[in-house]
Specification:
about 210 residues; mainly alpha; two-stranded antiparallel ribbon; 7 helices; globular
Length: about 210
């Protein structure tokens, strides 16, 4: 091997190293976390208390890394189960889809793409983007997040009925349960999350204290 070839090989190895190092810790298997069903709250006679309890159960999904990473307090998304700042560094951009020339779609397609070394995956789902800044959840209490979710001025103009559909059928939300190798899925299933959302709305959409 010539000296130049050796330098090229060394450079390529150096570039590849951070990907491998970052991928290995995240590629560990993670146990599934269940979600209660709406029927599990039927014994709570008071509708307001039942509604708040249902939203608390929904909070297991809302507070998971799969959701918080895309609802950051800053203009930089987070990633991984450890919710580290996104690497490479990226920003929200004017439409929550990245900066011009470095949009989310530059790396994130409509489906997950596995790493060649089999130790992780680049996440992907239709319409990959950050949640709007008005829906930042990172660092907030579940009660504060609940108030945001219900507020059409902050949630993108969604009615309570639209929230049921969003939580239960939106493919980008659904990615949280199919995040690819190296990431823990959100608790339960999207269908269960949607059913809990409906039960929450039907019982008055009350927020926990």
């Amino acid at each position: 091997m010539t000296r130049n070839h050796g330098l090229i090989a060394f450079g390529l190895a150096a570039l590849a190293l951070p990907i491998a190092v970052l991928a290995r810790p995240e590629a560990r298997p993670t146990p599934a976390v269940p979600l209660k069903a709406p029927a599990d709250f039927a014994s709570i006679a008071d509708p307001a208390a039942r509604s708040a309890a249902i939203f608390t159960e929904m909070g297991k999904v809302i507070a998971s890394p799969r959701c918080i990473n895309c609802h950051p307090r800053s203009d930089r998304p987070r990633q991984g189960d450890e919710m580290q700042p996104h690497m490479p560094p990226v920003v929200r951009g004017p439409a929550d889809q990245g900066a011009p020339g470095m949009e989310c779609a530059t790396c994130h397609g409509d489906a997950n793409v596995a790493f060649a070394n089999g130790e992780g995956a680049i996440p992907g789902a239709p319409h990959w983007q950050l949640a709007p800044a008005s829906m930042a959840w990172e660092g907030k209490s579940l009660a504060a997040i609940c108030a945001q979710i219900k507020d059409p001025k902050r949630n993108g103009g969604k009615s309570l009925a639209a929230l049921i559909d969003h939580n239960g059928t939106d493919p980008l939300v659904g990615w949280a349960w199919h995040p690819g190798l190296g990431r823990a899925p959100a608790p339960g299933t999207q269908a269960r999350f949607g059913a809990l959302t409906k039960a929450w709305v039907d019982s008055g959409a009350k927020c926990p204290a």
